[in-house]
Design goal:
By secondary structure, the protein is mainly alpha-helical. The protein has two domains: 3-89, DNA polymerase, domain 1 (Orthogonal Bundle); 116-290, Intergrase catalytic core (hpI Integrase, Chain A), CATH 1.10.443.10. The protein has 13 helices and three strands; from the N terminus they run αααααααβββαααααα. Strands 1-2-3 form a three-stranded antiparallel beta sheet, with no helix packed on it. A hairpin with a 5-residue loop joins β2 (167-171) and β3. α2 packs across α4 (70-89). 25% of the residues are buried.
Amino acid sequence: MEWINLKNDYLNFLRLEKALSENSLLAYERDFNKLQSFATKNYNELKPTEITQMHLEEFLASLYDEGLTARSQARVLSSIKGVYKYLMHEDILDSDPTELIQGPKLDRKLPHVLTVEEIDSLINAVDLSKPEGLRNRAILETLYSCGLRVSEIVSLRLNDLFFREQYVRIIGKGNKERLVPINAKAIGFIQAYLNERKKQKINPQFENILFLNRRGDQLTRVMVFTIIKELTKKVGLNKKISPHTFRHSFASHLFERGADLKVIQELLGHETIITTEIYTHLEKEHLREVLLMHHPRTQESEI
């Protein structure tokens, strides 16, 4: 099989079978191109089905030599493993050359989380006297109430809102659907925003999209980042905050207050519990900081 044929087939598989977004497909294509470039540059006519474990180890070494971080190397390896799982699934290969390949060890990077007070200060800093005030307040209340990804908040539709039942329907990664409870406060601000939204001229293409910009078009992810960035500056928070910080804070606050990890997994739409377990590490780190700050022995100098 030639490189170009495999790439087209694999990307089509990811697009149709896995329902990945265009951004994800571009990332997979870039990683695929790295392996293809390495193979053609160093081994001339080497085909993807002729790649061995030795070739892959040399490829990973070349990524290190290029200065890619351990995390970037691990991501590329994960993408390439996916390619060879696909070849095995299609019965094009009998053995997987990536099976015994191990990526670089990664330090577990804990996500940034805000306190409840910091969340409140950001949300309350929205100027409701401005035309976009109610919309921005509704966005932040919903982000924190439901723990949504930024892509999920901007694609939220009117027919995804079930206020009587206090649920919203979310279409997450891979077009997977989940129902997430939403609190009365967030509902109240969404309804207030909807009353203002009725006065707006709306692009017919986006009539069913909840959050719109001034032109009546769908709000972009970048705009949500900008809203939060400006509020962070306004309240003087010296932290790097993004829409995802609200999602992390949502999950962390639930776990701190005793919510079951499996429930948090369902609410966040994580495919595996392993991803959700990061919040147990956050809690342990918090406990350690409390101990170091308040235990009398930590205030004494060592012998």
